[in-house]
Amino acid sequence: MNKLGRLPFIVLLAIVAVTVILLVSLMTNISPVDSDPKMNMWVDYNLYWTYALLILGVGIILVYGLFQLISDFKSAKGMLIGVGFIAAVVLIAYLLSSGEIPQFPGVQKFVDNKTLTPSVSKWVDTGLITTYLLLGFAILSVAYASVSKLWSK
């Protein structure tokens, strides 16, 4: 393997090593007291590391996708259609969603500390409706594939 081929493997080993060190440090500093500053510090470090890995992963995916889009536009047409379909589903779900705050026991606490606002409620509703729509499309596509196989024989 050439040096350039080993680079991703070395980077992966470094990421795994940092992750293991942070995880072990967190596990050794767990305290039954929630307000322990040392434990909270390690929780914060682990969360920051998770955010950094998430941003890095999303960034790599976006750069790779753009590179593929530019280098071979004809094969990327299907990907663009898929992204457009998902964007349309999310838009439809957003238009169907309600900004009304749901009523359930304990909701007033979240409304009072501004955790639950009409905007948050609308986006949660959008996520739920999007999930339901995509699940419905998946079930319909499986049913269509099964029925079309029966008719083609």
What does this structure look like?
This protein is an all-alpha fold. The protein has 2 domains: 1-71; 73-153, no CATH class. It is 82% helix and 0% strand. The chain is built from 5 helices and no strands. The protein has helices at 3-28, 37-71, 73-96, 107-112, 118-152. Helix 2 (37-71) crosses helix 3 (73-96) and helix 3 (73-96) crosses helix 5.
Question: Secondary structure elements and their pairing?
Answer:
Blueprint: H1 3-28, H2 37-71, H3 73-96, H4 107-112, H5 118-152
Helix pairs in contact: 1-2, 2-3, 3-5
What would the principal axes of the Cα set say about the shape?
Answer: flat
The helicity comes to over 70%
Number of strands: 0
End-to-end Cα distance, whole Å, is 49 Å
How much of the sequence lies in strands comes to: under 5%
- Provide the low-confidence segments as ranges: none
Oligomer: single chain
pLDDT averaged over residues: 89
| Total domains | 2
Biggest beta-sheet profile? none
Helices, by number, come to: 5
Question: Structural class given helices, strands, pairing?
Answer: mainly alpha
Order of helices and strands: HHHHH
Question: Compute the gyration radius: what is it?
Answer: 23 Å
